[in-house]
Write a structure and sequence with these properties.
By secondary structure, this protein is an alpha+beta fold. It folds into three domains: 4-30 and 259-395, Cytochrome c-like domain (Cytochrome Bc1 Complex, Chain D, domain 2), CATH 1.10.760; 45-256, Cytochrome Bc1 Complex, Chain D, domain 2 (Orthogonal Bundle), CATH 1.10.760; 416-549, Single Sheet (S-adenosyl-L-methionine-dependent methyltransferases), CATH 2.20.130. 23% of the residues lie in helices and 11% in strands. It has 14 helices and 15 strands. Strands 7, 10, 11, 13, 14 and 15 form a six-stranded antiparallel β-sheet that branches.
Length: 560
């Protein structure tokens, strides 16, 4: 007796027999470009350039370290190339186990006042998202955004609570999330009013360099964000709606439709090197069951057995429906080879791993596994043909080369940091090493520059000492306090006392003047705090030294 799975296998076999006509029918079915825009947010070329500025603006984050583009690098297929090296420990909370997730690095936890705080399991380090970053390229063709589809076509403005788009507004809905996420970009309790107020005085893309030609021209004409918003919207008001509308319409310009497969879909013969792979894609391998051409996705959600169902509920976490358990959005297959690792947890290291996964019928069968997840019994040659199709046939060369709509500036976070640690630290009373928290870029005019202390003694006096020179780690001259000193005590110019909190954290707020004479100036700092239980230090503990180089915001010129 035939069950649903055997019927599915029979249908796939019949489709393979009729393969050549089926491929021919796919020709001349290119993706619509330009794509559909919401009636409420029509195409506006000035707004699109503004959206590009905002998408790559690291000052959109609370601490000036993360932009939307930080996790959506164009030449990485619109995803995050850092994911190989930015683990989240997964549901068990333990790093280095099978359920680890390769996510995206965000911000160090900061409370509502901007004080650095620790959080489990990341301590004083940057937090990492619990899913791999999906691509924003071709996301315009998704009905819903995020792996679990929680950003829908109904865009409700977060400042007013009003429904502003009732259809195809998923990009606007998605854009409203990360800027207020206290894992990805924000301090706790941040509001859209705070974000808007910061943009009023921020130098547009002042932390980025290598601005593209159209961005340079735009900045020369509209040198402030109020100027840019006035050009796009008619007046200088900065609101959440205008920010999200601009970012969404910039993302609508990111259409990758110049792959070899797209050449075929536009009515041309398929290149011989891709013919066998595409035949498998449409037939025996059944990839097109979900990665439906021309869009290469089906705007649906599936459980394919990447991990056990209970590790991440997927769509069920949004709908509450058990039939949605561990179902995730079908990703666009274009440029998949550029956005490794793959899957919602970053679990596939290569396209070859991806093909092996589907050839095996998934890794974790369960009651919610989609019915099409069957072993494929591909030969090594067939797997190689599919790998070549995905790696080359579905890659738009403009994406990899940062060309056309995929051009972008270079972010400050991609450049060598001007803040570095040096020297040695002494141990505190519990045997831990106190640490500096110094992720913020030290640019002139940064009124919110901060430096933090972690693993200090709770609720004790701490002192931040600044010097014009570095020390050699020698102990204090006073033999009662043999703590290593990493700054030059002969050129001290500022001593700032504070108190650690109940968890041993301290944060020093020290705005940086905008004076251009300070550009290139370097100074040195070290934390000290009292801890009578610390062994061999006379009750005083010190961190490593921090070298802090000041820099001026960039002018927007190439390489500036």
């Amino acid at each position: 007796m035939l069950n649903r799975r055997s019927v599915r296998a029979l249908v796939v076999a019949v489709a393979a027999v009729a393969l050549t006509p089926a491929l021919a029918a796919q020709a001349d079915q290119a993706m619509p470009n330009p794509p559909e825009y919401p009636f409420e947010n029509p195409y506006n070329p000035v707004q699109e350039v503004l959206g590009k500025f905002l998408f790559w603006e690291e000052q959109l984050s609370s601490d000036n370290t993360v932009s939307c583009g930080t996790c959506h690098i164009t030449e990485a297929g619109g995803s995050d190339p850092r994911s190989f090296n930015t683990p989240n420990p997964g549901p068990d909370g333990i790093f280095g186990t099978a359920d680890d997730i390769r996510g995206s690095a965000g911000v160090v936890r900061q409370d509502a006042s901007g004080n650095f705080r620790g959080t489990t399991p990341f301590d004083f380090h940057v937090q990492v998202t619990g899913r791999k970053t999906p691509s924003m390229i071709n996301a315009v063709y998704n009905n819903q955004q995020f792996w679990d589809g929680r950003a829908t076509g109904n865009y409700v403005d977060p400042q007013t609570g009003l429904l502003e788009i009732g259809y195809v507004g998923s990009l606007e809905s998605q854009s409203a999330g990360p800027p207020l996420s206290d894992v990805e970009m924000a301090r706790e309790g941040l509001t859209w009013d705070d974000v808007a107020a910061k943009l009023v005085t921020a130098k547009p893309l002042g932390l980025a360099t290598d601005l593209t030609p159209e961005m340079q021209d735009f900045l020369a004409t509209y040198p402030t964000y109020p100027d840019m918003f006035a050009a796009a919207y008619g007046d200088p008001a900065i609101t959440s709606l205008r920010i999200n509308f601009a970012i969404a319409n910039y993302e609508r310009s990111l259409v990758a439709d110049q792959t070899p497969v797209d050449h075929f879909l536009k009515g041309n013969p398929i290149a011989p090197e891709f013919a066998d792979g595409l035949a498998l894609f449409q037939g025996k391998a059944n990839c097109a069951s979900c990665h439906t051409l021309p869009f290469s996705h089906d705007n649906d959600f599936h459980n394919i057995g990447v991990r056990p169902d209970l590790e991440d509920l997927g769509v069920e976490g949004i709908t509450g429906n058990p039939s949605d358990r561990a179902r995730f959005k079908t990703p666009n297959i274009r440029n998949a080879a550029l956005r490794l690792p793959l899957f919602h947890n970053g679990g596939a290291d290569s396209i070859a791993d991806l093909i092996d996964f589907y050839n095996d019928g998934g890794d974790f069968p369960g009651p919610n596994l989609d019915e099409f997840m069957l072993p494929l019994n591909l030969t090594d040659e067939e797997k190689a043909d599919l790998v070549h199709l995905v790696e080359v046939g579905f890659t738009d060369p403009r994406v990899a080369a940062r060309e056309g709509p995929f051009s972008r500036p270079t972010l400050r976070s991609e450049l060598p940091s001007t803040t570095t640690e040096f020297g040695v630290a002494s141990l505190n009373g519990t045997g831990d090493t106190p640490a500096n928290i110094a992720p913020l870029p030290a640019f002139l005019g940064n009124s919110d520059w901060r430096i933090g202390l972690a693993s200090g003694k709770p609720s004790t006096t701490a002192l931040m000492a600044f010097s014009f020179g570095a020390g050699d780690g020698s102990p204090f001259p006073d033999p009662r306090y043999p703590v290593p000193v990493n700054i030059d005590t002969r050129s001290l110019f500022l001593l700032v006392p504070t108190v650690t909190d109940a968890d041993g954290y301290a944060t020093l707020f020290l705005g940086i003047p905008a004076s251009p004479v300070l550009a290139g100036f370097e100074f040195y700092g070290q934390w000290f705090f009292a801890d009578p239980a610390a062994l061999g230090t006379g009750g005083v503990v010190g961190t490593k030294g921090v070298a802090i180089g000041l820099f001026a915001p960039y002018s927007g010129a190439p390489g500036a």
